[in-house]
DNA sequence: CGGATCGAC
DNA sequence: CTATGTCGATCCG
């Protein structure tokens, strides 16, 4: 493709090459320069199916950008001003809550896989190497990087860039071992450290540093490794730790200059003991110690970042790599200085697409991100622009959240083209088999199965189906997956489906509680039951019988047992279909028929499933599309603990909502309080292991955060508070809270809150009080009520803004459901507890324990001054 | 809920 | 010849 990117114009095309990560080539003498690299890659790429698809994706991104620019054109000055005001309220609030009290460390092993391979094979040292295969490289050493050889590049292209490149196959077992060694060290500094893959980890060393202050020298003394295996390379590797930030050269002899090591804590390094070194008590020293120990133990170097939150720590560790470290002092100004000129692409969570979109708005650095915050709040989703604000303020999570339970499990494989339906089915089955094994290892069962296909043109499709009874065995998963596959084969018929990748995923796992009920109910109750439709919930006999080809595949341990169990739950009328299916499958042309037949089976299952079901215990009609819930109901009936009316199961599943709405104080509290209440409520009724999984410290921390916040936000004092309060008073509870799991509730709540549709979803009898002017609005029309509120609000806003009354109002818009004018949403989620997001990297910082009063009187304008 | 996309390692 | 695998999050319909 052509041209440079025209900033401010829609046709912003960077060309595919730039996306391949060739922006920063530190061309060494033996390396290649950037143009040369791009040229070679382009030659190898041009005309390939892969490239064509890349162009297509590029076009899609360009269209997104175009849409965004069109949206931007429509924004009025007033809207922008309003947005500015709103965002800046948030900025001030965030700024007040800035928490610099934690010390977070990000450890990143340098070129990890490549480094391991070089360590274990000295022949590879001094050579350019990469780890991976001819199709895909996982990483490369620094020598190879000078030729433009990088991670995520196919090996055959790397070879063109660097003909002498040695490609070493992956050896995960080895990397895992080394990783474990490193983790053994890390855990001493933070037992709750968070590994991110094999070669990275976050640590919260705040506590360690406190204790460390009182440690005697001996506890901070470490010895050089003198073991014979390491001896021979001692000069080259063992002592190569360098500390760039100290102005240290990468001298092979470590700590030869004592004075340079006496940094801020001016501690005298004691070398009185032969072959040992003592580290100081500062954060830098502690991290040097970590890196030293890692190198002594593994002969590998690591880079590290030290900062008040995870986002900064991560970016910090990138600063002085390889084999260096960097610290951002826990001071606001230090943070802002670091952020100032940083390209947004360096920020974790900002990938190439987001980079390109922001670039189209003229945003490249973090300060520009900050300057455009108002505009961004109108162009991007709530989650996105708030993330942008966090980034431009240098905020991130100040504690390491525990990984939640896994949400999905999948397996996928790439291969040379497969276009015969028969092969595709058996491959699918094989994937299901692998996946079933993995699921079993963790004892998981899920309700939705997703099939992923990539055709030979690299176009990816996913097709999902969620079933009533959860699946975990090969047969169960395959029963669903083969349907999905069949539909896809049909969709291109009479042409063959030409694929290069297939994957199967299972998600929608049962909570611990659901598992419990599933077991009890399905096995004990339903099995003994006779005529009801549940009997057809379990899929048919092993589909393995469809494939003579696979019949010799090693029978798994309890295969027959499982089969017998399956048969017991199996309905009689499945067998005929099975045989039909078997015959049909081997008829080449009739995959359509095969699918139809197997579909019949599932349709049968579906249609026969009691949508309405009379509980055999309480004789009340129950309807649900969720088997586990029905089972729970039955169990509760059986146990006699069922309290009528509280856990009514209905199709709409609004029972939880009703129950929660009964709580008297509910609507008057703010969201955080609601959440606490609700959490209590949930964990009170629900003994699920998922709630108890949270460590004590974790949950107490959560709790203090919440109550802290609620305390702070009791009285509305400014507009944002008013708006928030407005939401509080009027917002009725989310429509669906179907899961008992606490963290799932979090997610649900988030989704509901973010969706503007749930905002003033008033019930018929509710009286609407305008939260701004406080007058009762006697209207049943939400639209007119919203309009009134908006007018009130705009009056207030404009008074603050320009001291002039009257302002063209914008109704809570439905036509532009997103972005522009989404005032209510913005204010609403101001109230969400921060840091609920999983990904750690993008979450906001948590509220500090002691909410300190607004000390800094900085103005927004002078922010980056 | 399903499907596509993004982003990270 | 030859462009990964696995997971979580988000957005939209």
UniProtKB/TrEMBL annotation:
Cofactor(s) the protein requires to work: Mn(2+); Mg(2+)
Annotated EC: 2.7.7.7
Family: Belongs to the DNA polymerase type-Y family.
UniProt function note: DNA polymerase specifically involved in DNA repair. Plays an important role in translesion synthesis, where the normal high-fidelity DNA polymerases cannot proceed and DNA synthesis stalls. Depending on the context, it inserts the correct base, but causes frequent base transitions, transversions and frameshifts. Lacks 3'-5' proofreading exonuclease activity. Forms a Schiff base with 5'-deoxyribose phosphate at abasic sites, but does not have lyase activity.
Catalytic activity: DNA(n) + a 2'-deoxyribonucleoside 5'-triphosphate = DNA(n+1) + diphosphate
Protein's cellular compartments: Nucleus
Name of one Pfam family that matches: IMS_HHH
Compositionally biased spans, kind Polar residues: 815-848
Residue span(s) of domain UmuC: 104-351
Segments crossing the lipid bilayer: none
Comp. bias intervals (Low complexity): 685-699
GO cellular component: nucleus
InterPro entries membership: DNA/RNA_pol_sf, DNA_pol_Y-fam_lit_finger_sf, DNA_pol_Y-fam_little_finger, DNA_polymerase-Y, DNApol_IV, PolY_HhH_motif, Rad18_UBZ4, Rev_trsase/Diguanyl_cyclase
Enzyme class: transferase
Ranges where the UBZ4-type domain occurs: 612-642, 767-797
Residue ranges, annotated region (Disordered): 674-721, 815-865
Full protein name: DNA polymerase kappa
MF (Gene Ontology): damaged DNA binding; DNA-directed DNA polymerase activity; zinc ion binding
PROSITE patterns listed in its UniProt record: UMUC, ZF_UBZ4
Keywords attached to this entry: DNA damage, DNA repair, DNA replication, DNA synthesis, DNA-binding, DNA-directed DNA polymerase, Magnesium, Metal-binding, Mutator protein, Nucleotidyltransferase, Nucleus, Repeat, Schiff base, Transferase, Zinc, Zinc-finger
One BP annotation, GO: DNA replication
Chief place where the protein resides: nucleus
């Amino acid at each position: 493709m052509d041209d440079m990117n025209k900033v401010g114009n829609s046709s912003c095309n960077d060309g595919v090459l730039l996306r391949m990560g060739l922006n920063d080539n530190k061309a060494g003498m033996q390396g290649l320069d950037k143009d040369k690299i791009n040229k070679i890659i382009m030659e190898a790429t041009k005309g390939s199916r892969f490239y064509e698809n890349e162009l297509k994706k590029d076009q899609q991104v360009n269209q997104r950008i175009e849409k965004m620019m069109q949206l931007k054109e429509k924004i009025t000055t007033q809207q922008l001003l309003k947005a500015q005001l709103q965002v800046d309220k948030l900025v001030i609030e965030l700024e007040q809550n800035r928490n610099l009290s934690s010390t977070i460390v990000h450890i990143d092993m340098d070129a990890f896989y490549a480094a391991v391979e070089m360590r274990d094979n000295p022949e590879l040292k001094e050579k350019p190497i990469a780890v991976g295969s001819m199709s895909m490289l996982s990483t490369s050493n620094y020598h190879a990087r000078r030729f433009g050889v990088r991670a995520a590049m196919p090996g055959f292209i790397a070879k063109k860039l660097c003909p002498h490149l040695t490609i070493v196959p992956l050896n995960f077992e080895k990397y895992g071992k080394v990783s474990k060694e490193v983790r053994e060290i890390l855990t001493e500094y933070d037992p709750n450290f968070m590994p991110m893959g094999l070669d990275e980890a976050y640590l919260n060393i705040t506590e360690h540093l406190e204790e460390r202050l009182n440690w005697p020298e001996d506890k901070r003394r470490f010895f050089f490794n003198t073991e014979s295996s390491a001896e021979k390379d001692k000069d080259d590797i063992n002592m190569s730790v360098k500390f760039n930030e100290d102005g240290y050269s990468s001298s092979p002899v470590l700590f030869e200059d004592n004075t340079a090591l006496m940094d801020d804590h001016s501690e005298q390094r004691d070398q009185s003991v032969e072959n040992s070194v003592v580290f100081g008590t500062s954060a830098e020293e502690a991290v040097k110690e970590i890196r030293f120990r890692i190198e002594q133990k593994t002969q590998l170097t690591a880079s590290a970042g030290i900062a008040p939150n995870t986002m900064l720590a991560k970016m910090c560790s990138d600063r002085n790599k390889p084999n260096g470290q960097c610290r951002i002092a826990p001071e606001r100004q230090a943070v802002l200085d670091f952020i100032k000129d940083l390209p947004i692409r360096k920020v974790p969570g900002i990938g190439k697409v987001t980079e390109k979109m922001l670039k189209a708005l003229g945003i490249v650095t973090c300060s520009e991100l900050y300057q455009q915050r108002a505009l961004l709040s109108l162009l991007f989703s709530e989650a996105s622009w708030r993330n942008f604000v966090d980034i431009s303020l240098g905020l991130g999570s100040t504690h390491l959240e525990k990984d939640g339970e896994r949400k999905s499990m999948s397996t996928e494989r790439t291969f040379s083209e497969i276009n015969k339906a028969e092969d595709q089915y058996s491959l699918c089955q094989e994937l299901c088999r692998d996946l079933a094994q993995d699921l079993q290892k963790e004892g998981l069962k899920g309700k939705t199965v997703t099939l992923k296909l990539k055709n030979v043109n690299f176009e990816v499709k996913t097709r999902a189906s969620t079933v009533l009874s959860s699946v975990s065995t090969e047969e169960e998963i395959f029963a669903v997956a083969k349907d999905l596959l069949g539909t896809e084969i049909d969709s291109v018929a009479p042409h063959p489906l030409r694929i290069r990748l297939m994957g199967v995923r299972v998600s929608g796992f049962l909570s611990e509680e659901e598992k419990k009920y599933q077991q009890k109910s399905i096995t004990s109750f339903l099995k003994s039951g006779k005529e009801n439709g549940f009997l057809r919930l379990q899929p048919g006999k092993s589909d393995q019988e469809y494939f003579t080809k696979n019949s010799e595949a090693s029978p798994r341990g309890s295969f027959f047992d499982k089969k017998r169990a399956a048969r017991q739950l199996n309905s009689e009328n499945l067998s005929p279909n099975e045989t039909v299916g078997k015959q049909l499958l081997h008829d080449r042309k009739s995959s359509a028929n095969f699918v139809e037949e197997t579909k019949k089976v599932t349709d049968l299952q579906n249609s026969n499933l009691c949508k309405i079901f009379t509980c055999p215990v309480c004789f009340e009609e129950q309807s649900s599309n969720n088997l586990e819930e029905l089972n729970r109901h039955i169990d509760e009936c059986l146990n006699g603990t069922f309290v009528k009316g509280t856990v009514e199961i209905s199709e709409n599943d609004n029972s939880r909502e009703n129950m929660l709405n009964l709580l008297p104080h509910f609507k008057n509290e703010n969201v955080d309080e609601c959440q606490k209440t609700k959490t209590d409520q949930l964990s009170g009724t629900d003994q699920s292991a998922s709630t108890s999984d949270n460590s004590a410290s974790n949950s107490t921390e959560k709790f203090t955060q919440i109550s802290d916040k609620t305390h702070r936000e009791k009285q509305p004092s400014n507009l944002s508070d008013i708006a928030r309060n407005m939401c509080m008073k009027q917002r009725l509870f989310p429509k669906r809270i179907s899961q008992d799991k606490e963290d799932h509730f979090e997610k649900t709540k988030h989704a509901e809150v973010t969706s503007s549709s749930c905002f003033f979803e008033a019930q018929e009898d509710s009286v609407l009080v305008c939260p701004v002017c406080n007058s009762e609005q006697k209207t049943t029309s939400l639209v007119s009520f919203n309009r009134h509120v908006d007018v009130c609000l705009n009056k207030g806003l404009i008074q603050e803004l320009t001291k002039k009354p009257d302002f063209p109002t914008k109704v809570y818009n439905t036509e532009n459901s997103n972005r522009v004018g989404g005032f209510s949403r913005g204010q609403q989620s101001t109230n969400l507890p921060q840091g609920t997001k999983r990904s750690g990297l993008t979450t906001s910082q948590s509220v500090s324990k002691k909410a300190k009063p607004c000390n800094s009187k900085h103005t927004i304008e002078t922010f980056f001054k």
